[in-house]
Amino acid sequence: MIDDLVASGFTSQEARTYVALLRQPMATGYEVAKGAGLQRANTYSALSALAEKGAAQVVGESPARYVAVPPADVVGRMRAEAEARCDRLEESLRSLDRGPALPALWTIEGRDAVLVRVATMVSSATDRVACSAWAEDLDLLAGALDDAVGAGREVVVNAFGPVAVEGATVFEHEPAERTVSERIVIVSVDRSRALVGTLGPDATAVYTDQPTLVTVVEKLLRDEAYLAAIYDELGSELEDRFGPHLVELRARLLPAEVAERLRTLIAGLDAGDSDDDEGEGTWERS
After folding, report:
1. pLDDT digits (tens, 9 = 90+) for 147-200
2. How many CB atoms lie within 10 A of CB 217?
3. 160: which strand partners?
4. Cα separation, 130 vs 194, whole angstroms
């Protein structure tokens, strides 16, 4: 709380004084100093500064007592001032920008950094979010996705495993334990920015705003959704033609060692839990 106030423009002494005022309305300067754990001289300086910032008021004279302006008013003013400041700064910086266009690709290293970039992309969307990931990774992004839905953005999710994002269009694919591919995450925002990455032990990703690459990512996400919907409707017919879980088709297009892992995985599924397969999962990206 104190750190957030300091980050918002208060000094440490002002932040402690404001918090003390909230806890003890109509306090004298001496009482505020005790509550804030500050020397009286520093407290009076902080009270004066808070009054100038519109965060505190003086009531009475003998002795003077102080009250905190309600947090909603203080924080609301901070928010408005910060937004206005950022708008001015963006306009000023754009007027100075005479350099070449930014590079089309940025590399991101590390699982936490990749997830932070994805969450930032989702939060900044103004129209549409489309993504594909393992269910447990989508759970980590649930807050950002829920906020996007709540803000009226179109949200389309290809989920490998069950997820619940209320208000989103969700296409459920095979769960993660039935895949042989890397732990991939794919995101497209507003059809103008995209990220493709992995979230395994050596997580890495590429972020781009290059239009052609974004178009390719958009097509990949749509194709995944098409496959999920088609398999959900015609799964038995497709398996009659291409084998269980489309193994014959998929194996033809995979590297030999991955195709062998896929055949082994599917053989184990058919032998061990075939009763549980019906109605579950649709397609995985390998």
Report:
1. 999 999 999 999 988 888 899 999 988 776 666 667 899 999 999 999 999 998
2. 21
3. 134, 173
4. 9
